[in-house]
Design brief:
This protein is an all-alpha fold and about 325 residues long. It is about 70% helix and about 0% strand. The protein has helices spanning about 10-15, 20-25, 35, 45-65, 70-95, 100-105, 120-125, 130-135, 140-155, 160-175, 180-210, 215-220, 230-235, 240-250, 255-260, 265-285, 295-320, 325. The model has no long low-confidence stretch (mean pLDDT about 95).
Amino acid sequence: MYSTLLARQDFINFSESANLEALLTQLKHTAYGPYLERAKDKELNARRAAFLMRGRMSELFHSIINGSPDYTKAILAQLYDYYQVNNLKAILRGIVTDSTWDRVRYVLFPMIGDNVLPTEQMLESKNVTQAIEMIQSTQYYETLTFAVKRYSVEQSLFPIEVALDLDYWRNLWKAVKTLPKADQEYAVKIIGPLLDMNNLMWAIRYRTYHHLSEEEIINYTLPIGYHVSNSDIHAVAAGADIEQIVKRLYPDIAGVDIMLSDLQSGLPNLELQLQKRIAAQCHAAFMGNPFQIGIPLGFLILLDMEIQDLVVLLEGKSNQLPNEEINKFLIVS
């Protein structure tokens, strides 16, 4: 599976394609080809293509989980649950914006398995509380019923989405800690930086974009981490110099002063640099011992990043953006 990941040269070739149609033609000659062929050419816009390519990812997730040792299934299933959580958030957004099923369906991740949400019925309820009641038997219900009280008062999905995200990452970190010690050491090196990136970016964005109070930032972030400690998050929340915090945590990232001189425009670039670091760690998992949890975790996260880059290319070509503008947002570049 690792050998089927696209190479940097592939992305250079994709970037140089003349338009969306030319990009799709190239993609049909990759491992995504059979999935793209499931739609007629006239139906293949950027959104539909992204949906079909995610179908490959869903199938690979399912295959890896089914073929893995029993003691690793919990963490792999929890990693896969990320897409279920995103589907849930997308459906609730669709309800609030009064979107149709045709508009929402191809934004969703094509989940496989026994725990697929009744997404269409939830959307058609046209009511957030009713939609939540439809999933009483799921692990999300308790978190949602607690958060929906804030939603009812504020009429904003923000507290619901934050509660879902925090619950997801707590459970993923808990799954890491339940692994045998040898596997735990490998898993921590991959999941730890991923958790750190999300937690740090949340804290900075809450402060920069949403102007939340110190107490709110602390409440809406995780008190756990790998390299980024709880005290680092508290420092961001308290108004400490963000550039200095980032430089101390990641001294190998060049040009932080320039990058974050304008936080509004610099934060996406910072996140991209952190993603590149995580990608390098995932590739490193394939060196050495071939029988450890870092290999499936690393592959699945690299696959997710690959599709993220392909979606950037699809959207960029669809909107006729210049190549240099598109390439700025690619992890693989």
